């Protein structure tokens, strides 16, 4: 009995020490004291074993001892197996900053750090712009007109965007821009997502491109000249990075520049001779100034001893002799302006280099530092805005569309995708807003930018697919009345650009995060590069303590022991504790995968992707809870929180399960499963009751629907029809209409109305004649049914309307 007691006390004591990462001295005290107690009490065997364990802990854990024999050996082994980090990778790793993503990598996230990013909201100017200028711009758009009739935005819209400085949101006021916060920029793009061409046209100049690069790295002369002209639209920028052989692997771009001397107007000018071919460059067909990335060489050593000067960025005016620009690509589903740019030996002066000579060779660093912010905002905001509109349109359509004598919103087969759309949109709103808020606090979130770009554009894909399914024939028939189909067909663009989602998920989220966000890995690699065994010792054994701590936290929290304190209300607290539990499991599993696979983990992309999926879902769930905690709640929002949080945690556990099943070491996989999920999986898909509640709310004139549709163009105040405003108007009178539908349908079923009264208008007239409906109600229903029918109507065209070459029209029935 004494032996068992000592074993239990030792296990409990060591688990407590490990959970708190109290260090080797504390572990030594536990094992040493219990060993002495065992010897004194006559339990010789367990006493000796505990003292041996104490000796091992002292030899391996006490710095003065281990540095003499253990650390040098471990260091030599580490240098052999550690992954090689290229200069390109190192630049990417050092770009940006680490914030909440780093906390999740520790396995013991400190929620106070997340709440330290307080939200000051929008300024009065930002709110006014969002409410007025964005509404005006949105009101000028019709998807069919833009995509099929003109393949461009209308001229009056271009003029308005320039006049109101939409292209200068990130440019400070002193240069004539709007100087908006990241939150305001995001909300503007969400509202403009009513039309994907409009959103892209405004978003790209405010994202990665000449404006941001000039702000951060440009010379004062470059800033003074270009920034005011970019802000008011006198200059339209584009940025040429990708090409035929350099897409996701942008660092392998084959475009070159050579430092040369040229005679111009009788003077010798030092400049660059550029040869390049770029593709998929947004705004290139109309750009007046081209940002260009290329590999610079100085073969004649005109600038110094180095011949290969590295990736460099320059600004090339459109009128540069030899620049081939103006042709267009045809992006799927959307006519946003995108095209190729070519140059063969064109010459530009040296002062076109962004930042001047001192920034030669710094191009890749400049790009990745800017991308960490821009990628957090443009496409994630567009996806979130698309979700807002899709939820609004689809909820409205599902309520007014009647089949089998009831709105299709009452059918559970429709309620399931409708609730899923609402949950994904709710998560996206929280994630993009809270991440933008961290940017406003000075963060440059490199890993979160990859998470948001890939996850939210995938959400957009799922939301639009669900919206198309619910709309049915209304959405698959294109024409001016179709507000959904063109945006749906354009969705692959968002999936592909700014780092294709396949690459981002498989290589970037965990591949970059494992080194960038981990508390110790970057220090260990730096110690290896510096050949500093002392620095390695500190980092490695700190890392070892973290691994043991995460193992103890994952196991004990998985068993329901020692719940972590979390600063949330009773609704959100259980989810926060689960995030903390799974964070410990994630950190432990990440370390186990890196230790067992070493540099091979780079090639095991499916494993890396699943680790990235765990991190992504924990990150999104964290921001969801912060948004809940800081926001004003509305009716039924609690149901949506439960649905959304359960969905993310279920996805995280699914990624864990797939990872454990596929680790090369089956023993390691089984061990990790038992530690991380000792009681099995806890989370399943959200309950049907939540689905019904949410679907009902988003398809009615409810507070939850209004919350989800905040910052959309929902007013009937523009020259173009606004289907969202029309749906909202119909839902505002839905309760009165449903009561009349029930009364009339019941009378028809009982034979009180003629059997041949099959159309709603016929039944209504018969009900009036029999005194079942008042004239006032009849007038209301006639007007409503006319509006409903108009909203359900689809377009038709002349037989040969879609044939570009009329000579090729087949007349199957010539008569």
Q: Can you put this structure into words, describing what you see?
A:
The protein has 815 residues and is an alpha+beta fold. Strand 8 (402-403) and strand 9 (406-407) form a beta hairpin. Helix 2 (24-40) packs antiparallel against helix 3 and helix 21 (501-516) packs across helix 25 (605-630). The longest helix is centred in the middle third of the chain and has 38 residues, at 363-400. It is flat and about 105 Å long. Residues 361-501 form the Acyl-CoA dehydrogenase/oxidase C-terminal domain. Keywords: FAD, Flavoprotein, Membrane, Oxidoreductase, Transmembrane, Transmembrane helix.
Question: What's the arrangement of secondary structure elements?
Answer:
Blueprint: H1 2-20, H2 24-40, H3 44-61, H4 63-81, H5 87-94, H6 100-106, H7 111-115, H8 124-131, H9 133-138, H10 143-150, H11 155-163, H12 182-192, H13 196-203, H14 210-217, H15 220-231, E1 237-240, E2 256-264, E3 267-282, E4 289-297, E5 308-317, E6 324-325, E7 338-349, H16 363-400, E8 402-403, E9 406-407, H17 412-440, H18 446-471, H19 473-476, H20 485-496, H21 501-516, H22 521-530, H23 533-558, H24 573-597, H25 605-630, H26 637-662, H27 666-676, H28 688-698, H29 703-708, H30 723-732, H31 734-749, H32 760-769, H33 775-792
Parallel strand pairs: 1-4, 2-4
Antiparallel strand pairs: 2-3, 3-7, 4-5, 6-7, 8-9
């Amino acid at each position: 009995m004494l032996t068992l007691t000592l074993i239990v006390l030792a296990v409990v004591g060591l688990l407590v020490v490990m959970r708190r990462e109290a260090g080797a001295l504390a572990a030594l005290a536990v094992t040493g004291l219990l060993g002495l107690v065992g010897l004194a009490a006559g339990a010789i065997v367990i006493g000796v074993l505990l003292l041996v364990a104490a000796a091992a802990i002292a030899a391996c854990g006490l710095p003065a001892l281990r540095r003499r024999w253990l650390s040098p050996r471990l260091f030599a082994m580490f240098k052999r197996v550690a992954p090689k980090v290229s200069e390109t990778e190192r630049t990417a790793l050092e770009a940006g900053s680490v914030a909440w993503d780093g906390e999740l990598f520790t396995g013991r996230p400190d929620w106070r750090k997340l709440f330290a990013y307080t939200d000051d909201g929008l300024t009065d100017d930002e709110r006014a712009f969002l409410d007025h200028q964005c509404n005006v711009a949105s009101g000028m758009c019709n998807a069919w007109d833009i995509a099929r009739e003109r393949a461009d935005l209308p001229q009056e819209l271009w003029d308005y965007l320039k006049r109101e400085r939409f292209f200068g949101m990130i440019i400070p006021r002193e240069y004539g821009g709007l100087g908006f916060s990241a939150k305001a920029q995001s909300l503007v793009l969400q509202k403009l997502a009513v039309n994907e061409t409009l959103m892209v046209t405004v978003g790209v100049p405010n994202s990665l491109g000449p404006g941001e690069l000039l702000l951060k790295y440009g010379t004062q002369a470059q800033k003074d000249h270009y920034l005011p002209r970019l802000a008011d639209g006198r200059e339209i920028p584009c940025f040429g990075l990708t090409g035929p052989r350099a897409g996701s692997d942008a660092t392998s771009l084959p475009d070159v520049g050579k430092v040369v001397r040229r005679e111009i107007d009788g003077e010798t000018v030092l400049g660059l001779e550029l040869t390049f071919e770029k593709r998929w460059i947004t705004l290139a067909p109309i750009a007046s100034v081209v940002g260009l990335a290329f590999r610079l060489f100085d073969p004649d050593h005109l600038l110094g001893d180095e011949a290969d000067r590295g990736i460099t960025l320059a600004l090339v005016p459109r009128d540069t002799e030899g620049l081939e620009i103006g042709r267009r690509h045809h992006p799927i589903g959307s006519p946003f302006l995108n095209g190729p740019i070519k140059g063969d030996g064109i010459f530009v002066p040296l002062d076109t280099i962004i930042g001047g000579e001192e920034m030669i060779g710094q191009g890749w660093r400049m790009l990745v530092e800017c991308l960490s912010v821009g990628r957090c905002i443009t496409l994630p905001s567009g996806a979130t805005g698309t979700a807002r509109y899709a939820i609004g349109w689809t909820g409205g359509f599902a309520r007014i569309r009647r089949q089998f004598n009831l709105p299709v919103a009452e059918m559970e087969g429709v309620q399931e995708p409708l609730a899923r759309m609402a949950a994904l949109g709710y998560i996206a709103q929280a994630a993009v807003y809270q991440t933008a808020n961290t940017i406003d606090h000075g963060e440059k979130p490199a890993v979160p930018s990859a998470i948001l770009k890939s996850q939210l554009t995938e959400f957009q894909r799922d939301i639009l697919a669900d919206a198309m399914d619910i709309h049915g024939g209304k959405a698959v028939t294109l024409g001016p009345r179709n507000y959904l189909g063109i945006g749906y067909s354009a969705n692959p663009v968002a999936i592909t650009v700014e780092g294709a989602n396949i690459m981002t998920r498989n290589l970037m989220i965990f591949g970059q995060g494992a080194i960038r966000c981990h508390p110790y890995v970057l220090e260990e690699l730096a110690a290896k590069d510096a050949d500093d065994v002392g620095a390695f010792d500190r980092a490695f054994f700190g890392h070892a303590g973290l691994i043991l701590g995460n193992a103890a936290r994952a196991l004990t929290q998985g068993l329901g022991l020692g719940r972590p304190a979390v600063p949330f209300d009773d609704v959100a607290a259980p989810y926060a504790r689960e995030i903390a539990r799974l964070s410990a499991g994630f950190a432990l599993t990440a370390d186990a995968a890196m230790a067992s696979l070493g540099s091979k983990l780079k090639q095991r992309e499916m494993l890396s992707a699943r680790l990235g999926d765990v991190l992504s879902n924990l990150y999104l769930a964290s921001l969801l809870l912060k948004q809940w905690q800081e926001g004003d709640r509305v009716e039924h929002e609690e149901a949506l929180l439960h649905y959304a949080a359960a969905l993310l945690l279920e996805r995280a556990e699914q990624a864990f399960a797939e990872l454990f099943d596929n680790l090369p070491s089956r023993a390691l996989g089984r061990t990790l499963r038992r530690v991380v999920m000792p009681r099995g999986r806890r989370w399943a898909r959200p309950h049907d009751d939540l689905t019904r509640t949410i679907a009902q709310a988003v398809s009615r004139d409810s507070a939850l629907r209004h919350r989800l549709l905040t910052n959309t163009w929902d007013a009937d105040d523009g020259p173009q029809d606004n289907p969202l405003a029309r749906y909202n108007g119909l839902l505002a009178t839905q309760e009165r209409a449903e009561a009349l539908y029930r009364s009339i349908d019941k009378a028809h079923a009982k034979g009180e109305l003629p059997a041949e009264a099959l159309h709603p208008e016929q039944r209504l007239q018969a009900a009036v004649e029999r005194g079942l409906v008042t004239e006032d109600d009849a007038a209301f229903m006639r007007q409503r049914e006319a509006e409903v029918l108009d909203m359900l109507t689809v377009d038709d065209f002349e037989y040969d309307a879609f044939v570009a070459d009329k000579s090729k029209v087949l007349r199957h029935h010539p008569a």
